[in-house]
Amino acid sequence: MTTYIEKLESRYTAKKFTPNISIPPSILSDVKKVLQLSPSSTNSQPWHFVIATSQESKDKIAASARGFYEFNAGKIKDASAVVVLCTKTTIDTDYTNAILAQEEKDGRFPTNEVREMNRKGREFFVLHHRDTIQDAQHWMEKQTFIALANLLIGAEHLGLQACPMEGFDYEHLTEHLGLAEKGLAPTVIVSLGYGADDDFNASAPKSRMPQQSVITEI
Fold it and tell me: Has 171 been annotated as catalytic?
């Protein structure tokens, strides 16, 4: 049985995908589950994920990889599926109430006291970031990057290669996916699929800084 560490060691960022290969529906369903189950601060889940599987929809996303970012277009067009991880632009009471209602439906609160404590805790942090230190967008984007990490490792477990990209025309993608009117901002694009045989990065040795230079045990 492959261990978690072995999966981390075998994972690589695909620089080139084999085109015209579809992800089986069962695997794509698992990808959606991986995204849905991603953790976030106070279970705030300030995100939305747009998944493109048709060539037309992938091309629409690839069009945002233009100008300086043109080198990313092929990684989007040739992928089997593309996920645009979006971050909410606001987090209001209606949304936090919807989270609370879902948590209650899922049986997270043994008593009303626990429910109220949960509600107040999340409200405190939302208001703290929104009104006190005024970094709500940055805070919410950090949650989206947790979902990104979950997706990258999840993809490896599902036998998929992935390529995360921040190199795209933000305004172009926002406009062409109609994100602003949905209260969303594109944060990162992840292409998913099956790496090409001639992808140099597939066989390149993994390189990371040594533990002693990035970890301090106290």
Answer: no
Predicted pLDDT of residue 1: 62
Told to judge if 175 belongs to the known catalytic residues of this protein, a careful annotator would answer no
Instruction: List the CATH number of the domain containing 178.
Output: 3.40.109.10
Catalytic-labelled residue, pool 9, 70, 116, 166: 166
CB of 72 within 8 A of CB of 166?
A: no
Give a yes or no: residue 210 inside a domain: yes
pLDDT per position as a tens digit, 19-35? 999 999 999 999 999 99
Within a domain: 60: yes
**Strand ranges for the chain from DSSP E:** 47-52, 81-88, 161-165, 184-193
Question: Does 95 map to a domain?
Answer: no
Q: pLDDT tens, 191-206?
A: 999 999 999 999 999 9
Q: Do 160 and 27 contact (CB within 8 A), yes or no?
A: yes
Coil vs helix vs strand at 27: helix
CB 2 within 8 A of CB 52: no
The single residue of 58, 75, 77, 88 carrying the catalytic annotation is 75
Cα separation, 77 vs 109, in Å, equals: 45
Question: What residue numbers bound the domain in which 186 lies?
Answer: 4-90+137-214
| Whether 60 is catalytic | no
180 belongs to a structural domain? yes
Per the structure, how many domains does the chain have?
1
For the stretch 62-105, pLDDT in tens is: 999 999 999 999 999 999 999 999 999 999 999 999 999 999 99
